[in-house]
Write a structure and sequence with these properties.
By secondary structure, this protein is mainly beta. The chain has one domain. It is 6% helix and 40% strand. The strands form two sheets. A four-stranded antiparallel beta sheet has the order 1-7-6-5. A three-stranded antiparallel beta sheet has the order 2-3-4, with no helix packed on it. It starts with 6 loop residues before the first strand and ends in a 7-residue tail after the last strand. The protein binds zinc ion (ZN).
């Protein structure tokens, strides 16, 4: 069971991964420095530091599914 408060929803568009809205600074359609072909590595147990380009928030992604990135920290809700 994935703890929902640690999840960031994302969208995959072609070979890019976007978040519809940054949970830290609320900017919309943020392109993450993460490629879809890295997702299987994360699912295989590899941690991945992702730095949001909008506000330089750092999150460590430890699991993912087709809709969410699971991070090690609680994500702000708004
Ligand atoms: Zn941001």
């Amino acid at each position: 069971m994935i703890p929902f408060e640690n999840c960031i929803p994302y969208d995959r568009v072609m070979n890019d991964i976007y978040v519809p809205q940054c949970p830290y600074c609320k900017q919309e359609n943020v392109l993450l420095p993460l490629r879809p072909d890295e997702l299987p590595d994360i699912q295989g147990g590899k941690k991945r530091l992702v730095i949001f380009p909008c506000c330089h928030a750092r999150v460590t992604v430890i699991e993912t599914d087709s809709d969410y990135l699971l991070t090690t920290k609680k994500v702000p809700r708004f």
